[in-house]
Every structure is written in C-alpha cells, then in structure tokens.
Design brief:
60% of the residues lie in helices and 14% in strands. By secondary structure, it is an alpha+beta fold. Helix 1 crosses helix 6.
C-alpha cells in the first residue's frame, strides 16, 4: 500500500499540469480518462498483475500502457502520467491517486464535493433541485456524487465537506426515538 503522502504528491503534480496554462486538457476530460483507464485495470486481473509485477520489465509495462492509452485515445498528459506512475513503481496506487486527483482538482476549481445518498435512484429534476439547495447551503459550487442505500427507507442524506444534512426517514426516526427516550 502506498502512503497518503505519496498518493497526494502524485495527485497534486498531475493537477498542477492539468490546470496549468499549457496543458491543453479540460480537467473534466482528464478525470474521465483516468477513470476509464482505472476501470480497464480493475476489470483485468492479468493487466493488474503485469503492471504490479517486478518480474515484468519496465519497457514491457510502458509498451502495454502505450497500447492501452492509444486504444482509449488518452490525452498525452494522461498517458505520460500513467507512464511516470509505472516507472516509479506506483501503478498499484492508481485508484488512490485517481481519487485524490479528483478531490484536488475540485478544490483548485472551487468545487466542494457532496455525496448524496438516497433510498432509491433520483430523477434528473430531483438531482437538480438538490444541487441548487446544496450550492446555497455550501455558499459555492458543488460537485455531486449519488449513492443509493435502501436502508434509508426514504428521503436523502447529503455530506458536503464535514457537514451532514439528514433528510432521511431513518434519520428522522432516530431523532424521534431519541426524543422519546429523553422524555
């Protein structure tokens, strides 16, 4: 396992390049391309083994990454970043680096990350209303991630930074239970 410090160092370095004036790469495209490469690696145990194995030469790993980057039509910045990760034997930390890069990128672009959990999949209009409300509460732009958790029974919870807004039936029942126990 790679330390958080190392993961954040790689994430920050990539963010420096992507938001820099000469990147020629939209930050949203960068994260999308990284995630597509990460999904390809996650979906293939053979690929994970090749990238992680010290028995496979660096040249062979670079060749594999170049072919995959070409097939996914990855931007040169993303391809080069993946090559650097591999050269420094950090390919095993790819998922952690991508997650950290997502957070760093949002911070630099002025977004706060919000995780919205609902009992069932939300419709487009519901997502838009929630986004508007959370942006008002957070006093800024919010990047939403949606998760379904049937144990909520109904309603939603939202986490923006360290604040949690609980509008779930499960949360309301817990508050009611607590009030009844106090009285």
């Amino acid at each position: 396992m790679t330390s958080t410090v190392v993961v954040n160092r790689y994430a920050n370095a990539l963010a420096d390049v992507v938001v820099g004036p000469n990147a020629g790469l939209d930050p949203a495209v960068a994260i999308t391309q990284l995630r597509s490469f990460g999904a390809m690696v996650d979906g293939s145990s053979e690929l994970r083994t090749v990238l992680a194995s010290p028995a496979v030469s660096s040249a062979r790993k670079r060749s594999v990454i170049r072919r995959l980057a070409d097939s996914l039509e990855l931007h040169r910045v993303i391809r080069n970043f993946l090559l650097v990760l591999t050269d420094h034997r950090r390919a095993g930390a790819l998922k952690d680096v991508i997650d950290a890069f997502d957070v760093v990128l949002d911070e630099r672009l002025g977004f706060q990350q919000a995780q919205v959990t609902s009992a069932a999949e939300l419709g487009g209009a519901e997502k838009e209303r929630l986004a508007t409300q959370l942006e008002r509460l957070a006093s800024g732009k919010v990047r939403m991630k949606f998760v379904v958790d049937p144990s909520l029974i109904g309603g939603v919870t939202a986490r923006v930074g360290s604040k949690v807004y609980d509008g779930s039936v499960r949360g309301q029942l817990a508050v009611l239970r607590q009030r009844l126990q106090v009285n």
